[in-house]
Amino acid sequence: MTMKPLTILVGSKNPVKVNAAKHAFSQYFPDCNIICEGIDAPSLVADQPMTEAETKLGAINRAQFCQSQQTADFYIAMEGGVDCFDHGPATFAYMAILHNQKLSIGRSALLPLPLKVFQALEQGEELGHVMDRLFNTDNIKQKGGAIGLLTQGLATRESIYTQAIILAMAPFINAEIFSD
After folding, report:
1. 154 three-class SS
2. Using CA atoms, how far apart are residues 156 and 102, in angstroms rounded to an integer?
3. Residues 143, 16: contact at Cβ < 8 Å?
4. Which of 16, 70, 12 is nearest to 41 (CA)?
5. 70: which residues sit within 8 A by CB, 6+ positions away?
């Protein structure tokens, strides 16, 4: 029996993001052959987004770029960012998913950040580089991420992205009750 193909275009070649998309979609569509490809997609925001609004915009820009490049069933982009909340600095990611001209936005959980990490980000550094220096790691953003380091591996960048994608898919999986 041949499985129906389902194509996903991810706005990044980062294996963490591509794998998170593939894992999330394969849970919703177990009877499909998930074809998940990443492309370089510009966020049109800072390399290290410093607000929720900038982070969300980066994800949307990447997803829209994907849609302009080639045909797929779903276009998805993930953008990691940081912000300072009333409870302190934290990192998170926004998900933007496009399907049939409909956009769904999701966001991951917040991970508290040490103040010294946030201050380095305010000086123009990227979170992955700061974490690599702090924990003596190499290219952590394409591995477990700051999440993996700060949770002792109990959560990873991929696991959090997968969860956020699953949540952001709700309007597509339940289209009949989300239609207006």
Report:
1. coil
2. 29
3. yes
4. 12
5. 9
Give me the mean pLDDT over the 129-153 stretch.
Answer: 89
| CATH class entry, domain 4-110+155-178 | alpha beta
Q: Is the pLDDT reported for residue 180 higher than 90?
A: no
Question: Which residues make Cβ contacts (< 8 Å) with residue 174, sequence separation at least 6?
Answer: none
The residues pairing with 13 across neighbouring beta strands, listed in sequence order, are: none
Task: Scan for tokens 């987004």, then name that residue.
Answer: 49
Query: What's the one-letter identity of residue 60?
Result: I
CA angle, corner 27, sides to 21 and 32, nearest 5?
A: 90
Cα–Cα distances (Å) from 56 to 13, 64, 109, in that order, read: 19, 12, 14
Question: Residue 30: what pLDDT?
Answer: 97
Which letter does DSSP use for residue 141 in this model? G
HSE, CB side, 13 Å, CA atoms: give it for residue 109.
12
Q: 38 falls in which pLDDT band (50, 70, 90)?
A: very high
For residue 79, count other CB atoms closer than 10 A to its CB: 25
